Amino acid sequence: MRNSFFLLALRNIFRNKRRTIITFLAIISGMVGLIVFGGFVEYSFWGLRESTIRSQLGHIQVYKKGYSEKGIANPSEYLIDDFQKLEELFYKIPYVELVTARLSFSGLISTGENTLICKGSGVIPEVRQEKLFRLSW
User: Fold this and answer.
1) CB burial of residue 58 (10 Å; 0-12, 13-18, 19+)
2) Do residues 62 and 86 lie in contact, with contact meaning Cβ atoms separated by under 8 Å?
3) How confident is the model at residue 133 (pLDDT cuts 50, 70, 90)?
4) With contact defined as beta carbons under 8 Å apart, do 80 and 86 qualify?
5) pTM for the predicted model, two decimal places
6) According to the model, what pLDDT value does residue 38 have?
7) C-alpha to C-alpha distance for 118 and 68, rounded to whole angstroms
8) Which residues of 65-92 are buried (b: 16+ CB within 10 A; e: fewer)?
9) What is the mean pLDDT of the chain?
10) Which pLDDT does position 74 carry in this prediction?
11) Distance between CA atoms of 65 and 70, rounded to whole angstroms?
12) pLDDT at position 5, please?
C-alpha cells in the first residue's frame, strides 16, 4: 500500500513537467536567497563586532559599578581611582596587548547664536603611539 502511494506521487511529479520544473526552481531560488541573506547578516555582524573592537573600544571595557545607571549624568564621579593597579592586573593576563585609560565626554560649544555638538575622547598618547607602531610592523 505504501509503495503504491509512492509510485502515484512519483508519477504525478513527472506528469506535468513544466509545473514540476517551476516548483523546483521556486524552491531552489528560495533556498539560495536564504543562504545569501544569511551570509550577508553574518558578515554584517562580523563587521560590526570588528569595527567596534578596532575603533579603540577594545574587547573589554572596565568602569565603576553604577556607571551604567547614573554615570551619564555625572561621569566625573565614576572615574577609576587607581588605574595603574588595574593596568598591572590586566597585563598579567595572557595575550593582553594593550591596556589604556580613556575618558570620553560630549557637550555643546556655543558662540553667540551658533551652537554645535561636540564629542571628545582623551587617551594616553604614548601608549597609543606604541601600539600603532607595533601594529604597523
Assistant:
1) middle
2) yes
3) low
4) yes
5) 0.48
6) 96
7) 21
8) eebeeebeeebeeeeeeeeeeeeeeeee
9) 82
10) 79
11) 10
12) 84
Alpha-carbon separation of residue 51 from 47, 60, 112, 119, 137 (angstroms): 6, 14, 37, 19, 21
If you search the block for the grid coordinates 514540476, which residue do you land on?
A: 20
Query: What is the grid cell recorded at 109?
Result: 560649544
Q: Are 136 and 129 in contact (CB under 8 A)?
A: no
Q: Cell for 63?
A: 568602569
Q: Are 61 and 55 in contact (CB under 8 A)?
A: no
**Mean pLDDT for the stretch of residues 15-37:** 93
Domain ranges of the chain: 2-55, 62-136
In terms of Cα–Cα distance, which of 105, 50, 57 is closest to 79? 105
Secondary structure letter of residue 75 according to DSSP? G
